[in-house]
């Protein structure tokens, strides 16, 4: 399974905006129309539509072949019951992180778990194509944005970096940094490995500033 959002969870960030536009539309909507409505590039919309379709929240609509020219891909929100009821995922996360932290070498185990999950994240978005350094970093930033890290590209001399301005697991990271931060590191490493990217994550410095964690990237045999 390679999706970020589970069917029982609400989408977040830009993906939620795409879904909102589709739900508000009286009929099927094209990628260009969604991009115009949100003021973003069509590739960004396409990136999020792929997951929404896989999650069953959005469906493709057969184009009208009666019109001249090549018809655009059309999408509409899937009609379904909104998942309801209380969720207690933080409690589950606390239980699991506490258990992992109590074991032997929790940092290595957490990083390995993050790397295993990262290898499954958005792997279909590459469509088997080789990704260059810039494209890899852009795609990683997109994935981190979807996960709620509020990422920003940075440079320090010749080094490429990604700043993380938000931690979606902040309360756990403050008390279980030895588990949560290695999971984040492994997740990024695994994702880049699955894309066969020329970019690798060298290290993750947590809370270098009160509102900033810093990802250090290594470019292997590639120019920016």
Automatic annotation (TrEMBL):
Name of protein? Transcriptional regulator
Where are the annotated coiled coils located? Answer: none
Disordered: annotated segments: 59-81
Please list which residues make up the signal peptide. Answer: none
Q: Which Pfam families match?
A: HTH_20
The organism named in the record is Mycobacterium bohemicum
């Amino acid at each position: 399974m390679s999706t970020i959002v589970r069917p029982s969870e609400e989408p977040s960030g830009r993906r939620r905006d795409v879904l909102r536009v589709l739900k508000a539309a009286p009929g099927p909507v094209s990628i260009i129309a969604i991009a115009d409505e949100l003021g973003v590039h069509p590739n960004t919309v396409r990136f999020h539509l792929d997951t929404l379709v896989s999650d069953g929240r959005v469906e493709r609509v057969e184009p009208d072949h009666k019109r001249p020219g090549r018809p655009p891909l059309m999408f509409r929100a899937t009609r379904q019951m909104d998942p309801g009821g209380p969720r207690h995922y933080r409690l589950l996360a606390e239980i699991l992180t506490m258990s992992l932290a109590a074991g032997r070498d929790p940092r290595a185990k957490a990083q390995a778990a993050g790397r295993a999950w990262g290898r499954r994240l958005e792997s279909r978005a590459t469509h088997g194509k080789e990704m260059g350094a810039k494209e890899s970093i852009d795609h990683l930033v997109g994935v981190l944005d979807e996960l709620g890290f509020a990422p920003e590209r940075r440079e320090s001399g010749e080094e490429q970096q990604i700043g993380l301005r938000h931690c979606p697991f902040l309360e756990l990271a403050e008390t279980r940094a030895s588990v949560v931060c290695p999971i984040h590191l492994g997740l990024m490493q695994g994702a880049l490995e699955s894309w066969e990217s020329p970019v690798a994550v060298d290290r993750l410095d947590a809370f270098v500033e009160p509102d900033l964690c810093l990802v250090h990237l290594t470019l292997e045999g590639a120019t920016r």
